[in-house]
Design brief:
Shape: globular
Helix content: 40-55%
CATH class: Alpha Beta
Distance between the termini: 10 Å
Largest sheet: 7 strands, parallel
Length: about 200
């Protein structure tokens, strides 16, 4: 996820380190600034990584991003699909297998599932779901599952082994030194676990 004072520079470093998907996550920022950052990020990532905009289908559409990720307080998946059409990716945060199935039935292409572990990135009023629940969801649905919440280099391989198609990493990527190096290490650990790339 790209966030912080210069999300485009952070995303550039993550892509250089092997990230194949970057998510623009800007909270409490005017829509015009989110759009400007999204357009810069799309231009930067073109041909190298997918760009997903957090929360804002309108910004994803205007910036010509690859898709949007919807949380609990965002537009319903079906309404976002009406806005974005059939070709843009839509992901939805989920906490249970029933949530995941409902998101896909409403038109989501993939689901974010978690928190897998305790996380400091955002306040979530549900306990960590754990690897067994991740494995259950990944095995039960015919769509990619992105593991979210508290994932770091020490746990990302287990997340991949549990069936996640990708892992969303924030704190370990952006708070532990050089972002490119961290992305390389995280990507390698995810691949060793049997998955694709975070």
């Amino acid at each position: 996820m790209a966030c912080g004072p210069d999300p485009v520079a952070q995303a550039r470093a993550a892509i250089a380190g092997g990230a194949e998907v970057v998510q623009l996550r800007l909270k409490a920022v005017p829509a015009s600034e989110i759009l400007e950052a999204a357009r810069r990020l799309v231009a930067e990532a073109r041909g190298r990584a997918l760009v997903i905009v957090n929360d804002r289908p309108d910004v994803a559409l205007l910036a010509e991003a690859d898709g949007v990720h919807l949380g609990d307080d965002d537009l319903p998946v079906a309404e976002a699909r009406r806005l974005l059409g059939p070709s843009m990716l839509i992901g939805r945060s989920t906490r249970t297998l029933a949530d995941a199935r409902a998101a896909l039935a409403a038109g989501a292409d993939h689901v974010g599932f978690g928190p897998i572990f305790a996380t400091r990135t955002k306040s979530i009023e549900v306990p960590p779901r754990g690897l067994a629940a991740l494995q259950e969801v990944a095995a039960a649905i015919a769509a990619p599952v992105v593991a979210i919440g508290g994932i770091d280099e020490g746990s990302i391989g287990e997340v991949a082994a549990a069936g996640a198609a990708a892992a969303a990493v924030v704190a370990d990527l952006f708070s532990n030194g050089d972002v490119r190096t961290r992305a390389e290490r995280l990507s390698a650990a995810f691949a060793r676990g049997g998955g694709g790339r975070p």
